[in-house]
Amino acid sequence: MSTPSLKETHISQIPALQLLMKLGYRYLTPEEALEARGGRNANVLLESILKEQLKKINKIEYKGREFPFDDANINNGIVALRDLPVYEGFISANQAFYNLVTLGKSLEQTILGDKKSFTFRYIDWEHPENNVYHVTDEFDVTRTGRKDTYRSDIVLFINGIPMVVIECKSPKLKEPVDKAIEQHARNQQEDGIRSLYHYSNLLISTAVNDGRYGTTNTHKKFWGVWKEKYRTAEAREQDPAKLLQLKNAPLPDNERTVLFKDRYRDVLPYFTELEQQEVAVTAQDELLYHLCNRHRLLDLMYNFILYDDGEKKIARYQQYFSVRKIIDRITRKQPDGTRQGGVLWHTQGSGKSLTMVMLAQLIANHPAIKNPRLLLVSDRLELDEQIKETFKKCKKPVRQATTGRHLVELLEDKDDAIITTIINKFENAVKIAEPFTSPDIFVLVDEGHRSQYGAFNVNMQRVFPNACFIAFTGTPLLKAERNTASKFGGLIDIYAINDAVKDGAVVPLLYEGRHNLMDVNAKPLDEYFDIVSEDVSDYGKANAKRKFSARNKIVQSINFIDNTAKDIFLHFRDHIQATGFKAQLVAPTKLAAVRYRDAFKALGKVSVDVVISPPDDREGEEDAFEESDDQIKKFWKAMMGRYGTPDKYEKNIVHNFKYRDQPEIIIVVDKLLTGFDAPVNQVLYLTRSLKEHTLLQAIARVNRLAPGKDHGLIVDYFGNLENLDGALKMYANDDTLIDDIDLGDTLVDIAKELLQLPQAHSGLKEIFKDVRNKLDSEAYEVLLGDEAIRYEFYKKLSLFTRLLKLALASVTFIRDTPAQVVDTYKNDLAFFLGLRASVMRRYSDELNYSEYEAQVQKLIDKHITTDGEVLKITGPVNIFDKEKREAELERITGKAAKADHIASRTARAISIKMNDDQVFYKRLSELILQTIDDYRQHRIDEAEYLARMMQRESEFFAGHGNDVPEELLDNANAIAYYNLVSEELKEILKQERDSVGIAVAIALGIDNVVNDNIYDNGKPVIDWYKNEDVKGKIRIEIDDLLFDFTDKYKFDPDLERFDYLIDESIKIAESKHR
């Protein structure tokens, strides 16, 4: 039995192709795909296939007869698909494509003498079997503004349109899926192959035992995992068995022949042996099986993609399965003719509002629901534009209710418009409306305020007695809400916070209590209140005292606010500012919010804004006698003078917070505690009491994903931890009380997180336990010459850096940790960060710290001293840029360190150039490794080590060694053929005679054969390396050449070696002449 192969093509790419072929995709060789593209790498559409399919799936039905679209309209349809508005931007062009393939295009044609417009389709979404599906690999596409190409591993086509792009990696790589995602990102850069990604809907990155998916321009942080969810135990058992059977089913002989006939013919014996016994299912198989199944793929692309605020988004698995679960439920009517609704509990930050929009468009389009009336109730004003854009596919108008009365008018209207409104207008409408009795009314409520669980719900049931209600919540249901929720139909689906953190859908939350700063004597204030309220009844006194409590007065006092603002300012300045992230402060009252704003402005150096409701609206816990009306009214007047209306005031500040540099801190009372989605928001400063679902909603403001954001932070100045613990224990779902929820499922106390710090510190130092002289920095660097040890060092340093950054921002840590220990941590971090920068240069490592660079640099600048030297994070250097190479080398001290750096960067450059001349570069790699070993074994000193490495680098850039025959020195291509031929001739001639002269003659002959075939009148034949006719002619002529030389120099032909020489010569030619 052969040894298992970990090569990318063997373990990932070919198995992916085989499974996709078994799923019904017809394999096209790269050559066949290029031919279907008109022979042009700049064209990504398989136009010959596209044209044929458009004729098949498009028919005009008119006056009871069927007519084809004429050729002119078929061509017009193709032109529309080809000429996307790329000048409007990458995503805009992609959205134009998406609208085109999902909505179709209106084309005019004269039928029976009548000129009319008819809808022209690109995909038959309703009948997947009417489309054709192809898969190809090694898909070269010309880069934007350049002549060279980038290559995608696998591309899936539907009707000749490239809608799925897959990158495969070997699991032997470090972070292989991340590397695949980065390759997608590179390809989508301005100088990449956006012309391919303009048509993409699904992107997959896979590495056998892991895989993730995204869509066009998805940032790495937002790529998702797919977890298949089954309705029944039977399905859970049968589906994996079906996949195993499919994977081990043999490909039909004709398909197997096509796959392995050319590029992969050398590995056919390996796969033949591999498939003699059952092959296990991998995570890659599961991902492709579940996402690329043709029915699932079309469903995902048509129903579960939308554009939100300039970003394209595809459903996560919990969104997909919950929507499908709801559709199954509501399409089956109950005995009384109504439809069962329910409550969907998906944790905040997991895309709950987008789930609602996806569901709504499916209801609007569903063939089993005739004339549905859809009412979407949200607390997010910004959802309106998104909803309008999404519902283009429904071909139904979207009406926005501007007032409660207007909402009633829209409901009374008989058209089939989709109605959107925000929660307060809906509340007003149900108070005045007459009942609407249709069972085909669907009310979808994004209930951030939970107001429908009370009197509001009674009114809803009165106005819509037979409607189907579906509520979307980000927090679990309170026990008191269970009975009301059951009237909706009970819980439909749960996606809890721990699921979201585990899936990487949100960042984990860390908690730090700072309310000990508010430790004051409240007794005198309580006694004063007892005196002034002596004549009030006990009930009134208790009620008033609750509102006028000492604590509530303290947290909005000027002294407390000034002190707290200063602490917040220092925390924000030292740990958040300049990292690109922002913060939200929750104040107890509008008066306190304005006072915080004034306090920050007095401190300066941090920009803040306040978002509150108008002065006459009750907000927070304020009461008439506890508020300074003048101060708030003065603030409000200034805001209205600046922005004009309350709506513009809020929208402008929110927009600036989310997308501009300022404000850095946004101050609120009750506003923006729900439905406020700002990934840039990392810290929530709590200065008031929050309870139950409001508390859980509020803390989720900082759990949104963003590049470089590894956690959200709750800094509590009031003492809400007990409230949170109590709130969690009050929650229940339909069947089981959740009385024992671990608080760690929701957020982690920062003190608990920092318990890892000592272990992270010792684990980092443990790497260097064998370094005898702990003051010898060179010994550390030499130890890190081992790539595996170096990688472990990077990983452990990253953990230690993250934890220490967190610790230095914690009052508790600074207070409870001896100064000597803190200094040790800081000094060690300074050394290890410097060591990392040095070894990255020395060994030419390219680590991607771009997401975290600002944060780590902030940590260095604030806390780490380096004896006068400014420590900066190192970045990658172009190893082919001589000036930059030399500048980087100058930064390295010590001959051995310089030699290591030259060795590592030359080895990396060799890996890039290997295909140009495998014999030479393999020999050079071996010489580099031998030189390193000679130095490590003390056979040579540092000076000799550096001299030899400089010689090796010089040979690399010369492209040959010192033993190249003189007649070849000016011909780099012939040198590569010579190195190949001379190695094989030594074996053929068995050292019986000097083979140099023969090898030179053969190499020059091969070079002439190649040039004669790939150049036409001095100009290279376009994409000759993809033309099998050209390569076949080269193959024959080299074969003839070799046999001519056996006759001329009288040696026996070795057919196996000749075949190898021919194959490798063509590979060299392909690499040299692109």
From TrEMBL:
Task: Alphabetically list the UniProt keywords.
Answer: ATP-binding, DNA-binding, Endonuclease, Helicase, Hydrolase, Nuclease, Nucleotide-binding, Restriction system
What SUPFAM superfamilies does the database record attribute to this sequence? P-loop containing nucleoside triphosphate hydrolases (SSF52540)
Q: What class of enzyme is it?
A: hydrolase
**Gene3D superfamilies attached to this UniProt entry:** 3.90.1570.50, P-loop containing nucleotide triphosphate hydrolases
Q: Which GO terms describe its molecular function?
A: ATP binding; DNA binding; helicase activity; type I site-specific deoxyribonuclease activity
Annotated Helicase ATP-binding domain ranges read 333-494
Checking SMART domains in the record gives: DEXDc
Q: Answer whether the UniProt record assigns the keyword Transferase to this protein.
A: no
InterPro entries linked? Helicase_ATP-bd (IPR014001), HsdR_RecA-like_helicase_dom_2 (IPR055180), P-loop_NTPase (IPR027417), Restrct_endonuc_type1_HsdR_N (IPR007409), Restrct_endonuc_typeI_HsdR (IPR004473), SWI2_SNF2 (IPR040980), T1RH-like_C (IPR021810), Type-I_R_enzyme_R_subunit (IPR051268)
* EC number(s) on file: 3.1.21.3
Q: Which reaction does it catalyse?
A: Endonucleolytic cleavage of DNA to give random double-stranded fragments with terminal 5'-phosphates, ATP is simultaneously hydrolyzed
Segment forming the signal sequence: none
Among CDD domains, the record links this protein to:
DEXHc_RE_I_HsdR (cd18030), HsdR_N (cd22332), SF2_C_EcoR124I-like (cd18800)
Keyword Nuclease found? yes
A single GO BP annotation from the record? DNA restriction-modification system
Task: Describe the subunit structure.
Answer: The type I restriction/modification system is composed of three polypeptides R, M and S.
Checking PANTHER family in the record gives: TYPE I RESTRICTION ENZYME HINDI ENDONUCLEASE SUBUNIT, TYPE I SITE-SPECIFIC DEOXYRIBONUCLEASE PROTEIN SUBUNIT M AND R
**Family according to the record:** Belongs to the HsdR family.
Q: What the protein does?
A: Subunit R is required for both nuclease and ATPase activities, but not for modification.
Xref: NCBIfam families: hsdR (TIGR00348)
Under what name is this protein listed? Type I restriction enzyme endonuclease subunit
Q: Which organism is it from?
A: Chitinophaga cymbidii
Q: What lineage is this protein's organism placed in? A: Bacteria, Pseudomonadati, Bacteroidota, Chitinophagia, Chitinophagales
